Structure formats: structure tokens, C-alpha cells
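Subject: GntR family transcriptional regulator structure
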Amino acid sequence: MEPHGTRGATRTPPNFPGLGDNRPVTLKISIDAGSSTAPYEQLRAQISDQARSGRLPVGHKLPTVRGLAEELGLAANTVAKAYRVLETDGVIETRGRAGTFVAAARDAAARQAATAAAAYAAEARRLGLTRADAQAAVTDALRAAYGD
């Protein structure tokens, strides 16, 4: 029996208030077999980029491991490895038999970055670096990572 007032209504997933527009979303993945980057890492990076950019909205249900493996011509273990890393990174979340969904990745990424920054600051201070030296090290690392 339906709860009063829900007949015919579009239901928003309980963990994602404000969503429910039910816009069609397609997971677009391309695996380059000739790349030196492992297929699981290519898959992980593409899903992560799409989730962080909003092309895969929070709450979007991802294909099953087996389904995506078949679609991409990969081993199920390869897709499972990518999903495990994505879950560890906070990009996706598995809800048991309900499936795997895009999590609020931007929030998770910001939390992880803040944690890493705090750990770096504590380590730099423990090593006796001045604030200026610690900031210079971060600037150099960011320049190297982002190619600036």
C-alpha cells in the first residue's frame, strides 16, 4: 500500500535531497587497449572525472560490475578493482543489492584534500620547515602535478 500523498509522485532518493529530475544520463567510457595506463585506471579516471564534473549526477546508478565488464570487453575483476578504488576515494557508494551509485564526490574530494593538507602541515612542522619553505614545497608540487 502506498503512503498517503505519494501516488504518482516522483520520488527522490532519500540520501540525495533535491534530486529527482530523472534526466537521462549516459556513462561514456572509452578504454584504449594500446595505452600504457592499466584498463582499471582508465575506467577509474573516467568515472571519477565524470562524477566530479557533474556529467554523472549524484545518485546516478552505475551499471553492475558484470554488465559494465561485458559492455567494455573487460574482465569483471578489472571493473571490480576500479569500483573498489572509486569507493575508497568517495566517488561512488555501494548500497548492497540496490547497486552502485555516484556519491557526493566533490565533498569527499574536499575532505580528503583537507586531510592530506593537514597531514602535510604537521609533517612539515615536525621536520622543522618554516611556513615559507612548506608553502614553497606545496607550490612546487602543485606546479609539477598540474603542469603550470
